[in-house]
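Quick one, probably user error.
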């Protein structure tokens, strides 16, 4: 999961010892987006590879110790974390787009509305044709809310962001308490039947694959987006907007020790929520439903903390002499993150559904994770090669055309 399209392209991906600090800071924003692509890929690959994903039950076909260990690793370190980092960058880029419109002497609101429309159309196509867990449409709708909230002062925006996260986590905690008062038994038979029916549909034909995506969105994906991702994503939009307006990334990169302290505090605290979530999910049907809800509440509360730890870690890495290599590798992928996101879904659909190899439910989690690393490495190389001759990624070029309402340059460095 997942914001790629609205990110502005900033900086030059080429890093050398003579590049000014300002350019390194700008490249750091793109590189952060490129780093987040890996987390998005790992999480989405789990949904592609098993129809038990998000069901509350472990996939019985992948019940070996290594399978459980890999799933726990993904839950602890990736799920509900990396889309927050993308959301933060969406809000950050929102301010860059306002500045760009002002420099061009253009009205920002019509521009941004066209961008949101383009993002929504891409999201609809992506959700129905490639991946039911699409978040682009959600980002488009939340972008409209961000547009209305752009006049908030920094303190008000941060208070609202905190309220959204705490309120969402508190809502899940309240549900857990209510559920504990009158526990609901797991309907294991129904869950298994739905998962197996979905797997059969994804292997049957391309048309049945598309129909199953519609059923997935209707049965559960929208619930996840509305009651888990949307409020937390909007919160991170607001935080990113404030950080961009306050030029905070430049200040953070000027204080490496502050970044180290943030890493030392945020990563262990954030992982604690992920550990609880992984423990609850690992229990499968034996774990009471209210325990899973309570672990979700804690995870939602601590996921932004872990995302902040990742942010501080990457900024600190980019400041190191050896970190310039990572900066140069990641920044091009971040500049065309929307194209890379859609490509990840296309590969997932070709590998796991009737579009191609029909391997859903047949690939162990460790192999899926290895495939993610290989695909991500290929995307880093492809992004660098593509941007050596093109101004934007293919999807970014299309979205920019809709935003500006004219065809931008296709080729050019």
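Nope, works fine. Designed sequence:
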């Amino acid at each position: 999961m997942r914001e790629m399209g609205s990110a502005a392209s900033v900086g030059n991906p080429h890093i050398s010892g003579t590049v000014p600090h300002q350019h390194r800071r700008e490249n750091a924003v793109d590189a952060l987006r490129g780093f987040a692509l890996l987390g998005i890929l790992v999480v989405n690959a789990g949904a592609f590879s098993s129809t038990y994903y998000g069901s509350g039950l472990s996939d019985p076909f992948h019940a070996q110790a290594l399978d459980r260990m890999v799933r726990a690793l993904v839950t602890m370190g990736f799920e509900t974390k990396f889309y927050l980092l993308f959301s933060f960058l969406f809000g950050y880029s929102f301010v860059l787009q306002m500045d760009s419109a002002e420099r061009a002497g253009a009205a920002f609101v019509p521009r941004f509305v066209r961008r949101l429309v383009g993002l929504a159309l891409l999201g609809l196509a992506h959700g129905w044709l490639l991946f039911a867990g699409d978040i682009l449409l959600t980002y488009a709708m939340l972008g409209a809310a961000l547009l209305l909230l752009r006049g908030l002062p920094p303190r008000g925006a941060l208070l609202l962001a905190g309220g959204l996260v705490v309120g969402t986590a508190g809502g899940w905690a309240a549900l857990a308490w209510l559920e504990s008062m009158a526990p609901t038994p797991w309907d294991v038979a129904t869950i298994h039947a739905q998962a197996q029916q979905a797997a059969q549909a994804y292997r049957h034909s391309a048309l049945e694959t598309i129909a199953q995506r519609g059923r997935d969105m209707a049965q559960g994906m929208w619930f996840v987006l509305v009651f888990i991702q949307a409020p937390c994503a909007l919160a991170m939009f607001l935080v990113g907007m404030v950080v961009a307006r306050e030029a905070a990334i430049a200040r953070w990169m000027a204080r490496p020790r502050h970044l180290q302290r943030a890493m030392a505090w945020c990563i262990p605290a954030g992982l604690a929520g992920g550990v609880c979530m992984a423990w609850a999910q690992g229990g499968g049907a034996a774990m009471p439903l209210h325990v899973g809800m309570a672990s979700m509440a804690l995870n939602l509360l601590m996921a932004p903390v872990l995302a902040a730890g990742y942010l501080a870690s990457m900024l600190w890495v980019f400041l190191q002499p050896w970190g310039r290599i990572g900066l140069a590798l990641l920044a091009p992928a971040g500049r065309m993150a929307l194209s890379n996101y859609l490509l990840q879904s296309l590969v997932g659909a070709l590998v796991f559904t009737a579009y191609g190899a029909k391997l859903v439910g047949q690939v162990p989690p460790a192999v899926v994770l290895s495939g993610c690393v290989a695909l991500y490495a290929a995307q880093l190389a492809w992004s660098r090669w593509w941007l050596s001759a093109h101004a934007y990624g293919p999807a970014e070029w299309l979205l920019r055309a809709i935003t500006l309402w004219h065809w931008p340059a296709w080729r050019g460095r």
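Residues 206-245 form the longest helix (40 residues).
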